TrEMBL record:
<protein>
    <recommendedName>
        <fullName>Tat pathway signal sequence</fullName>
    </recommendedName>
</protein>
<dbReference type="Pfam" id="PF11807">
    <property type="entry name" value="UstYa"/>
</dbReference>
<keyword id="KW-0812">Transmembrane</keyword>
<dbReference type="InterPro" id="IPR021765">
    <property type="entry name" value="UstYa-like"/>
</dbReference>
<feature type="transmembrane region" description="Helical">
    <location>
        <begin position="33"/>
        <end position="56"/>
    </location>
</feature>
<comment type="similarity">
    <text>Belongs to the ustYa family.</text>
</comment>
<keyword id="KW-0472">Membrane</keyword>
<keyword id="KW-1133">Transmembrane helix</keyword>
<dbReference type="GO" id="GO:0043386">
    <property type="term" value="P:mycotoxin biosynthetic process"/>
</dbReference>
Length: 295
């Protein structure tokens, strides 16, 4: 009896040892649940990362970043509420002769006048009191649209885009510069071309920056129409830093004024006889100034 029990215990022990050995022979079964869990977790993480990268690639980053940058560098304007301003790299025409662009041409040119006149159409719009406060304007000082006439409610104030006012100011200077005889200016050739160039460059810069800020209107004494309040708020760069940077990095001016063209340079031709004439006259003036200064 005891012998049989001993045999059964021995057989049970051997069976247990065999099971352990078989387990050792198949290591892939050890911790199979843990391995599966880790594998599943890694797959989920990889899937989420892939999904995130896909969504990021589809997101219009440039548009969002551009609008955020414009808001940071500009005073508040309602234009940004419903318009995504596009940015584009533009080559400004720095030519010195008549006909290079409508912005350089004289007031006698009908095509140029038509191009400039499109900016003279200053149109007013409606602003809310909240928008005025965001612009730094006190609503009580701004002219309102009467609801009984305009049917805009009790929160409609008069405003317009300052961009068109800026172009108008430049156009006034342009016309005044050639007011004597717009067809044949009395200026010497250098001054005439110089003025055309300056006007054209300033106009292109105004078009490039396209200030979206607003001008509000006020009721003034002895005036029966709203008068524009040109005292506007703007987010400005510190121009003094540019002056300091120029002074710190500029080369010696006296040396530059006597610097002459070396013989090894590659000459870029002027594109017209007018520009060639301008260069000749400019060289003559510079040489005359050098002689006066003993250079």
């Amino acid at each position: 009896m005891d012998f049989d029990k001993h045999e059964r215990d021995h057989e049970s022990t051997e069976a247990l040892l065999d099971a352990v050995e078989r387990r050792r022979d198949r290591p892939w079964q050890r911790g199979s649940l843990g391995v599966w869990s880790i594998s599943a977790f890694c797959n989920v993480v990889l899937f989420l990362l892939s999904l995130g990268m896909l969504m990021a690639s589809l997101r219009p980053k440039s548009t969002i970043n551009t609008q955020d940058a414009l808001r940071v560098t500009s005073i508040y304007t309602p234009v940004f509420e419903d318009t995504a301003i596009r940015l584009q790299t533009t080559h400004l025409n720095g030519s010195l002769y008549q006909g290079s662009s409508v912005w350089h041409d004289l007031p006698s040119d009908p095509v140029a006048e038509e191009a400039w006149d499109q900016f003279e159409h200053i149109r007013t719009t409606s602003l809310t009191s909240a928008q005025l406060l965001a612009m730094g304007k006190e609503p009580s000082t701004v002219a309102k649209y009467e609801d009984k006439i305009w049917h805009m409610g009790d929160d409609a104030y008069v405003g317009t885009l300052d961009f068109f006012h800026q172009v108008h100011c430049l156009n006034m200077l342009r016309k005044a510069a050639f007011a004597g005889n717009a067809a044949m200016p009395s200026w010497p050739v250098v001054e005439t071309i110089h003025l055309q160039h300056c006007t054209g460059m300033l106009m292109q810069h105004l078009l490039c920056t396209a200030d979206a800020g607003m001008v509000t209107y006020q009721w003034r004494e002895n005036s029966h129409i709203p008068y524009p309040d040109f005292g506007v708020n703007r987010q400005c760069r510190d121009w003094r830093q540019l002056v300091a940077w120029r002074d710190e990095h500029a080369v010696d001016l006296d040396k530059y004024m006597v610097y002459k063209k070396p013989g090894w340079v590659k000459n870029v031709p002027w594109s017209s006889e007018e520009e060639t004439e301008f260069l000749r006259e400019l060289d003559r003036i510079i040489e005359e100034e050098r002689r006066k200064s003993g250079g």
